[in-house]
Amino acid sequence: MMRTKPDAPSDRWHLVGISFFILGLGTLLPWNFFMTASMYFNNRLNTAEWSNGTVTAPKEYYFNNWMTLLSQLPLLVFTLLNSILYPRISERMRIAGSLVFMLILFMLTAMLVKVPMKQDHFFSITMVTIWFINSFGAVLQGSLFGLVGLLPQKYSAVFMSGQGLAGTFAAFAMLFAMASETDEETAALGYFITPCVGTLVTLFSYLLLPKLEFARFYLNKSKDQSNEIHGSAELLPKGTPENSDPNSQATDSVPNGTPSNPECDGSKKAFISIDAENAKQEKSSVLEVFKKISVMAFCVTFVFTVTLSVFPAVTVDVKTAYPGKWERYFIPVCCFLLFNMMDLTGRFVTTWLRWPSKESRWFPALVISRVIFIPLLMLCNVKGRRFLPVLFTNDWWFVIIMLLFSLSSGYFICLSMTYAPQLVAPQDGETAGALMTFFLALGLSLGAALSFLLRVIV
């Protein structure tokens, strides 16, 4: 764990911490704003249209399913392309460029609110926008995780806290837009202007970092250390084996057999001794690391698969038992706001409660037991059902199920991601983190794909 170095300047007014909090918030704005606005999109896509003087029946677009799938696939794709893409494109281009393109796409989405068009065209444009905006979001998220990793550990926690609040921020933005008592079109326009402003603030926060002494200290120091390591490697004799024995005779002579300089001999032995020590701490192969964290990899994949299979594709179609004014606020409050707040609470709980332990068999067993939430939510009062009956008609049943569903999701996700690096040697922590990120993305994509089948079964 990286701590603040003694010679490091102070983070004046906590500006670096605030900047990374905003950057964390900005990375998940696309997914959360499109997901929370699903009612707006469904209302626009499921209205009757006139064709040859007759009213045609609304077409089923399965917007929530496609939106979830096309939001999560870019994360999986860019996780796989991580090692190829990132070294070839500068950090500034990846982060600032992604934010600029996200801003343009958010502005396009806001403008489409006022543009009348056929439902098929609107659906196609929206799906393309979702794909590209989440692709840039995936690049942004991966780049910022690498950037914040250069700073002390607490800044990673601040960054992830910003990510955790993104969903709650989007849910409150939707509620404020609905409570404004304006027409639906104006409310939607105001809602989509919010992420435009948020993305601009995120871009400003990133551009501010190089001007802050505390951030410059760690970011420049990391670059200097990389250059030093690269330079040291070039200064080594080409014939010198990497795992030289410090006690061998070769360390006391030069290649032509002439005795080495006694004054340099001690430093050379010290250098080779360090190299031998580093050789003992060589990184394990990806397969070896995977074997050690396979249980945690399975757990994070399974948790996200269960969660994304029904949220929001199924949960967004649950109807309240109390029609009237409450009907308008039921899904924003009891689905999106409740889920995001309880998911965040579950993540925070792990700071003082970590049960079961990483070695316990109860951990994967409890993760698998979350599958019970799939039938429970499908048996709630979901509209447009075909096969299954309704067992839980009252709103309170839905609220209780959603509360436990989202709380357990945040709790087990955070535990899985926390436990994985603890199961490997320190030098393998980076590999473990990369593998867990891949399986996290895999779980999101599997859940999104499964949501199509579950919505049809309902």
UniProtKB/TrEMBL annotation:
It is found in: Basolateral cell membrane. Residues 241-261 have a biased composition (Polar residues). Pfam families: Nucleoside_tran. Signal peptide: none annotated. GO terms for molecular function: uridine transmembrane transporter activity. One of its GO terms (biological process) is hypoxanthine transport. Keywords: Membrane, Transmembrane, Transmembrane helix, Transport. It is a multi-pass membrane protein. One of its GO terms (cellular component) is basolateral plasma membrane. The chain crosses the membrane at residues 12-41, 61-81, 93-113, 125-150, 157-177, 189-209, 293-314, 362-384, 396-420, 432-457. Residues 233-265 are annotated as: Disordered. Its main location: membrane. InterPro entries: ENT1/ENT2, Eqnu_transpt, MFS_trans_sf. Belongs to the SLC29A/ENT transporter (TC 2.A.57) family. This is Equilibrative nucleoside transporter 2.
